[in-house]
Amino acid sequence: MGFDYQSQLKLSQLQALIAVADYGSFSEAALQLQLSQSAVSYAIATLEEELGISLLSRGRYGAHLTPVGEQIVDRARQILYLMADIVKQANLAKGLQGGLVRISAFRSAGTHILPRIIAQFCHRYPAIAVSIAEYDDRFDVEEDLRKGRADIGITYLPTSNEFETWELMRDEFVVLFPPSFEPKTTQLSWEDLRTYPLIMAPDGDGCDAMVYAHCAKYGTTLQATYKIRSDATIVNMVAQGLGTAISPRLAAEPIPEGVRVFSLPVPFFRTISAAIVADALITPAGFALLDLIKSSFVPISNS
Predict the structure, then answer these.
(1) How does pLDDT run along the chain (303 residues), one tens digit per residue?
(2) Which Pfam families does this UniProt record tie to the protein (predicted)?
(3) Are 53 and 137 part of one and the same domain?
(4) Together in a domain, 204 and 253
(5) What is the extent of the structural domain holding 248?
(6) Which of 14, 95, 118, 234 is the most buried (most CB within 10 A)?
(7) What is the pTM of this model?
(8) 232 and 197, same structural domain?
């Protein structure tokens, strides 16, 4: 009667054989496997009986592989490696062959940053769905992360230490003037900001608060005449000569033809970042998307 490997060969027997080969004794193998010595001896004995060969020579100085035992243990290692790889590949497939990744982002990031990245991600992992929630400002993005409504957030610094962040890009705050504006010098002055009525977002906007603080640092207090929520409306009001605006360049895009664009007298930037809740359990699909987002940007230099 031939050997029926499908019903008789056990992984536990192969594990015992490898352990004895590695440690040179049944007692040490049992210790490493957290089994009794008799259990290891039984596993080896039944394996030898089922194969009909001696795999180990036993003596007062320990146990050593026979020549055929050397060949068998090499194959046993390959089997255990392949079994572990099967489980690994299955776990990867469960994470990357379906499911949903949720992103929350402030609006200009959702418009200008994410579409290209999502297109790449969906090409690589067509079975994974991606949802994007867009908000006027970062506060709602971070609230989605806190409450578990988003896996990844696109926000801007600074954030609280409850988030782990990765800096993606610097976005300059630019001053937008109507086509008729002619600066007195090639470099904008603080006084130039008072040439037209100021158009900004309503009170409480995070970016505008950063702008007000930056200008105040250099002795210029800003007072908005118009308070408009929509970035596109603000830019088009500037194009129609109704006023000037200070906006992140990303939020101002696309800038209408004729609108004059300048850096602030002291240039100022916001740092856009990807964020997750620190120590959060992220799915394999979420990690894959986060890695793609991070790899899509050149690391920001501190110089």
Answers:
(1) 455 554 568 888 999 999 999 999 999 989 988 889 999 999 999 999 999 999 998 887 788 999 999 999 999 999 988 888 787 666 666 667 777 899 999 999 999 999 999 999 999 888 889 999 999 889 999 999 999 999 999 999 989 899 999 999 999 999 999 999 988 888 899 999 999 999 999 999 999 999 999 999 999 999 999 999 999 999 999 999 999 999 999 999 999 999 999 999 999 999 999 999 998 888 888 989 999 999 999 776 554
(2) HTH_1, LysR_substrate
(3) no
(4) yes
(5) 170-270
(6) 234
(7) 0.66
(8) yes
